[in-house]
Amino acid sequence: MHRFFNMYIFHIKQYAHNSYFFWLVITSTISILMLKYVAAYADNQLLNSQDVIVAGIFGMWSSAVTSAGILHFQRSQGVLVYLVNSPTNTFTNIIALVSSASTFGLTALPLSYILTGILNNGYFPVISIIQIGLILLFWFSALPITYVVAEIFLLTKNAFIYEELFVIPVLIFSGLLSINKPLIVYTDSLSFLIPITYPVHLLMGYTNLTVINTILWVLTLSVCSYPSIWYINF
Questions:
Q1: How many CA atoms lie within 13 Å of 2's alpha carbon, on the beta-carbon side?
Q2: pTM passes above 0.70
Q3: Which of 26, 153, 214, 225 has the smallest number of Cβ neighbours within 10 A?
């Protein structure tokens, strides 16, 4: 476990030092927040906590989907071969590497919060402990998706080109970028297959925290995680 966290921290630092990954989180977060700001300004309103959360999650998810090309990136750097052929557990090495993408995305939330305060002329919306917990739940739910995406796109050398295909569609199906209730209802038949849907619906107020919903979320998370863990161990 100690080695895993050392590897985890190392890969996060390496991820943050890459200008593409670093600026992707910043530009993704700011772009959504500015759209929210324009809408709020037109309505003579200030940005609220919901706007902070939406922009933060968008930035987090934009970072998470870079897991599609992270294995190719490490291979081009000549690092992947050492991670796979290391005398230590390959599972530990690969999971620590892929997890760095979504973990670095957590920086999008404080960025969104600070920028909101600046745009609101010093007014910072209140983010509750429950909302912070649900954001962490979103991050935890995104992890298994990054493992699946990393494995699938290892089959192509053009992963960085296609990874953007996962940004908007998945967030629409999860309910974060839905513009009205009918759209949410329409996508419910597919959204349950996406682990991040439950925390997003909780954050947006579309559903309540219930035992049944939580059990369904755990099952979805397990179904998404198990093939990845099995494949890496194999």
A1: 0
A2: yes
A3: 214
